[in-house]
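Could you help me review a protein record that somebody else here produced? What it holds is a sequence and that sequence's fold in token form. I have pasted the whole thing underneath without changing anything:
=====
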Amino acid sequence: VHKRLRELLPHVRIAVGHGQMPPSQFENIMRDFDAGKYDVMLCTTIIENGIDIPRANTILIDRADRFGIADLYQLRGRVGRSGVKAYAYFMIPPESYISSDARLRLKALQQHSGLGSGVSLSMRDLSIRGAGNILGAEQSGHISAIGFNMYCQLLKVAVARLRGKNPPPAISVEVSLPFLERNPSSRDDEAGAYVPYEYIEDDSRRIELYSRLAECRTQKDIDELAADTSDRFGAAPSPFRRLLEISSLRILASSRGISRIDMQEDELVLHRNGIQYRTSSGKRPRPAGSNADELLVSIRNIIRGVSN
């Protein structure tokens, strides 16, 4: 890249910096760049943190689609550190060559470009990377060990007990249904089960809704949440209705002593007391349906038929 730039811009003084340089050499280069001995600084993401060059007012980031929101936010912050208007150019290939998540990240950075945008971007980043699976297993730390749903419920139980209340038992049922799409960036209206970006654009409200849904322990809780959401944001789209149905299945399964709902090929696997539930014929039940909604209804009916 350096050679190509020298051919294109023979009269421009170009410095090069990267992480494999000795610290003293890189420090000298940055000091010379800050002093105006170079016009352009060609470097890796080593400048992401701790670099303050007020005279730099333009940054070009090659293949910005390969970076995360946090990286791009930090790199963008390397310019505009003085009273001169600054520009950050994100260079990407044609949109057909980048992933849907990358497009969402770049769009988020376009939307949140003002002062104090860090919190909004972090919420958006969380939404893109994991909010769609926030009720699933893709978590970390304590939440990874017990799941987001159980974590929220245990937290609610602890708070209630501190207040001297007697909360209902927590719902501990894992649901894994491969025919559902849990990632909101997929925009799958036919099989999606999530809170769509188009339905609730504000990331903090979307995360709040996931949290409230995770805390539901009765069907009444779910019905009240659905009614409240409809009042605030309008009629629920199909993906959100399926997300509510998953929570209803979890509550119903818990009342039947079921700890896990799974699908293996076209068979429903219900785990109860360490064994798999089977019908009177000794076989696993087979949900009937040609689409996600019909399969969910069939699964609900099967679980309802399981004796306590």
User: Anything to note?
Assistant: The chain has eleven helices and eight strands.
